[in-house]
């Protein structure tokens, strides 16, 4: 870009662009060419090019500026005019206003766009739409990075909430100990006991099938004057030490070097084991979970497709149990629902509301695991189009080698996470030679299985492939292929709309967890 009265304001932009395309020209030479252009341009001329002894200036006026193309005299002027015409179409796409200020504000965007059109002094065969697409830089790696970053932020927030709850519990126990003369429960050293208590009379009845797991902090009934002995106090003296010897450690390290997965010994903790899921922070949590069982044929076609889903309810405080749950079923005609025997089926069939047959009884609180199951559903189909992920495996023997090509095709209905495709292999002395893979791979030498993993499958990678080479083997060795993955959407598309309080007032705050996972997903 240059003009007679603005050439001194934008020389850095012009110099940068010309230096990018003419790597053998010095900066002084480029600045000299640009400085000479305003003196050569006359007024009232019809043609849009000026020739000197060495170069040709091809230009086009754009309001108060000039779009300038500097070439040698041997260049084809028709191609230069076509290049100039394409560049003139790109300028309004990136500049807010066609003046000096607008050009300076979007200088870098224009450099990148022009760089897609001209490469090393020659025009690329591109259109305006292609240039805009190339400059958008929609990166799959950036999506993965943002996904990992979001998961870390969510884990940190859950950890903060968990710590805040622990601090509140410690304050409450400390205040109880100061008022009643008892020590805090943590200092008494006793474990936590899980007991299954069946509700009778005031609950669901002994035959209802509902129960809840109550954590009881047991403590010894000692007198106030006698100090409580800590069960966690270390014994006096060293005693016998248990651990791995140096030779054992060397053996484990050698196994790890061969690709084996070594599971370290975990010392059992006193008390009930907690699941790896995030701790409950809201008064009411509803979990929608679907398990997918699929059997695909290696030659194409669907042998089995079944989905089993559950809606579970977890309540922290008993006072929040006097509620009804209003849901939306998503309208999938292939899904058949079944309510719990203690849930009012007519209320669900007519209004999509899940409530107990006896509204005077609350839902049980303090449930461990996934809580109380309110609703179950099942879906079966023979339509191959509903399968979220199809796998094609093509083994072919050529000489002393077997070439195996595996492809996946993912449906646009789901974004799949943590996808792992496990391919059985014949017994090998070393890992297979992977020629091409979309994602990551890992070879388990003990099980002789090649695992192909893709962190995320979305609209940017609905299809992918992997190719590897092994010694000659029969094609049946590579089957059955197992697949596992998770997704944030479900086939039923069940959603919790609201909680309806039975005693009036505001409904308790609730959260919903939704996940689709594989139970048994194979290609046979």
UniProtKB/TrEMBL annotation:
InterPro entries: AP2_Mu_C_sf, Coatomer_dsu, Longin-like_dom_sf, MHD
Membrane topology: Peripheral membrane protein
GO biological process, one term: endoplasmic reticulum to Golgi vesicle-mediated transport
SUPFAM superfamilies: Second domain of Mu2 adaptin subunit (ap50) of ap2 adaptor, SNARE-like
Location(s), subcellular: Cytoplasm; Cytoplasmic vesicle, COPI-coated vesicle membrane; Golgi apparatus membrane
Keyword Ligase: no
Species: Escallonia herrerae
Keywords tagged on the record: Cytoplasm, Cytoplasmic vesicle, ER-Golgi transport, Golgi apparatus, Membrane, Protein transport, Transport
Entry protein name: Coatomer subunit delta
